[in-house]
């Protein structure tokens, strides 16, 4: 154990930097500051830095009052990496998207590590939290610092990988009560990482090495992607057989062992489930292994918006209408309930597919008042009786908890519900995702 750094961590005297203040980095910086550390948040996005400096939060799980309490006291923010020379710990939370060829884009990690390396002093602990394929931390952080600075890992600097498992919008599980998996490059690295996280996380799960920690996160999200794909495929199968998938899932979920509940939907979104499995399959391909499960799940999930549109075509057809010139309202454009994140949202794809087919599309979202779509700013409509009456079809694409679905049902001509939020009202105006449309009598 490095006694100087470990004492600093124990006494909360270690200065901690968080690089990348987004959905992951900002809550982490807040948690560290709340637990007593002096935290320095670094982000290249001037707009975010300015918002934080004016005491405003842009992350849904963090209230502006929290920022107001911490800013310029326990939490300082800026875009300048020179601060790294003053830090004892640097935690990296930058994006790991896919590039146009649908391959891992590690440029954000590379860029931030380049800056960190430039100002890095000896005895600093670096932790990567961004999701990535096994081997990244070693290749892009450890090797690059050893080569460029002639520092020795475990002696001159310390490195861990600890995947962020935060679920934005989740009211029950947060950073402190979600077990934290961590792998270290050496025994000392791991011990330091455990010491840091155990000061604000209830349960730490150490693993034998960094690659295992990197793989844990990919496994978790691949597991979700594949299971969601299974129910999405079953939804389409059961539509043909004429069985209600939602009822099947509810009944199957009563089994107290050996079954995990996943629901179908209009597709998957966000920065994790659609992307993380691709990081794994890309890495596997490098070793000449082809993950058929991952590719198949990705294929099924990414085709769900098209399935939704095909059901919409059938619904309108039954009403003697077609998509062209229909007035369609999407309720919810965020990729999942109770958050304001539009990244990879299937609702946006449905929006565009319907517009391409000539529909006039509007949306309503209690979390997103406007967004830019194909260079055009689109605003959420007001939800009134008169406005609802104007639509030929309402599609529920995201199941935010603060929406009055009963009001929507009673004032709409017909509602296509891809999230099963309307069945409890037993209205004949509601059609669930996966229902066999031709058997529908309106
Ligand atoms: N969003 C989630 O639910 C979630 C959950 C678990 C893990 N993750 C992973 O965490 C990582 C971050 O995701 P996120 O959702 O917080 O992304 P985000 O886009 O919300 O935030 C990333 C931040 O990093 C900043 N940034 C980019 N390059 C930078 C650089 N060179 N230096 C400093 N700042 C830089 C961006 O400006 C942005 O503010 C990703 O790897 C993601 O897969 C995300």
UniProtKB/TrEMBL annotation:
Listed InterPro entries: 6-PGluconate_DH-like_C_sf (IPR008927), NAD(P)-bd_dom_sf (IPR036291), UDP-Glc/GDP-Man (IPR017476), UDP-Glc/GDP-Man_DH_C (IPR014027), UDP-Glc/GDP-Man_DH_C_sf (IPR036220), UDP-Glc/GDP-Man_DH_dimer (IPR014026), UDP-Glc/GDP-Man_DH_N (IPR001732), UDP_ManNAc/GlcNAc_DH (IPR028359)
- Root EC class: oxidoreductase
Keyword annotations from UniProtKB, A to Z: NAD, Oxidoreductase
A Gene Ontology molecular function term for this protein is: oxidoreductase activity, acting on the CH-CH group of donors, NAD or NADP as acceptor
- Where does the source fall among the domains of life? Bacteria
Task: Give the GO terms filed under biological process for this record.
Answer: polysaccharide biosynthetic process
Q: What EC identifiers does the entry list? A: 1.1.1.136
Q: Where is the UDP-glucose/GDP-mannose dehydrogenase C-terminal domain?
A: 329-424
NCBIfam families in UniProt: NDP-sugDHase (TIGR03026)
Q: What does the sequence similarity comment in the record state about its family?
A: Belongs to the UDP-glucose/GDP-mannose dehydrogenase family.
Q: What is this protein called?
A: UDP-N-acetyl-D-glucosamine 6-dehydrogenase
Which organism does this record belong to? Alkalithermobacter paradoxus
- Source organism phylogeny: Bacteria, Bacillati, Bacillota, Clostridia, Peptostreptococcales
């Amino acid at each position: 154990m490095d006694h100087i750094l470990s004492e600093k961590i124990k006494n909360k005297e270690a200065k901690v930097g968080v690089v990348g203040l987004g959905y992951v980095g900002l809550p982490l910086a807040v948690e560290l500051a709340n637990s007593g550390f002096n935290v320095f948040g670094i982000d290249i996005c001037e707009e975010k830095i300015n918002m934080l400096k004016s005491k405003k939060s842009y992350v849904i799980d963090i209230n502006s009052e929290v920022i107001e309490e911490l800013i310029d006291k326990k939490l300082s923010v800026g875009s300048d990496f020179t601060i790294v020379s003053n830090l004892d710990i640097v935690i990296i939370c930058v994006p790991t998207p896919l590039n146009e060829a649908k391959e891992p884009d590690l440029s954000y990690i590379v860029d931030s590590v380049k800056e960190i390396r430039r100002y890095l002093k000896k005895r600093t602990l670096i932790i990567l939290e961004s999701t990535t394929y096994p081997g990244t931390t070693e290749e892009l952080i450890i090797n690059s610092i050893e080569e460029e600075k002639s520092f020795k890992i475990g002696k001159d600097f310390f490195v861990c990988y600890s995947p962020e498992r935060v679920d934005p919008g989740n009211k029950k599980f947060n950073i402190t009560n979600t077990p934290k998996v961590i792998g270290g490059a050496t025994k000392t690295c791991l011990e330091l990482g455990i010491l840091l996280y155990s000061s604000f996380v209830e349960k730490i799960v150490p693993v034998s090495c960094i690659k295992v920690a990197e793989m844990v996160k990919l496994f978790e999200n691949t597991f979700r992607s594949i299971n969601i794909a299974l129910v999405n495929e079953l939804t389409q199968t059961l539509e043909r057989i004429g069985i209600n998938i939602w009822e099947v899932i509810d009944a199957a979920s009563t089994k107290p062992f050996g079954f995990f509940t996943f629901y179908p939907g209009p597709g998957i979104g966000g920065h994790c489930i659609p992307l993380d499995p691709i990081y794994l399959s890309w890495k596997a391909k490098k070793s000449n292994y082809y993950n058929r499960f991952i590719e198949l799940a990705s294929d099924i999930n990414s085709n769900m918006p098209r399935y939704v549109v095909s059901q919409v075509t059938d619904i309108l057809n039954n009403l003697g209408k077609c998509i062209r010139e229909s007035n369609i309202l999407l309720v919810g454009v965020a990729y999942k309930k109770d958050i304001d994140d539009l990244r990879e949202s299937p609702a946006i794809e449905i929006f565009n597919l319907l517009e391409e087919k000539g529909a006039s599309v509007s949306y309503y979202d209690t979390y997103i008042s406007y967004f830019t779509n194909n260079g055009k700013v689109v605003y959420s409509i007001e939800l009134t009786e008169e406005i609802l009456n104007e639509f030929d079809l309402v599609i529920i694409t995201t199941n935010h908890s603060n929406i009055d679905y009963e009001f929507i049902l009673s004032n709409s001509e017909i509602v296509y519900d891809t999230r099963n939020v309307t069945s409890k009202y037993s209205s004949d105006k509601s059609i669930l995702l996966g229902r066999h449309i031709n058997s529908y009598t309106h």
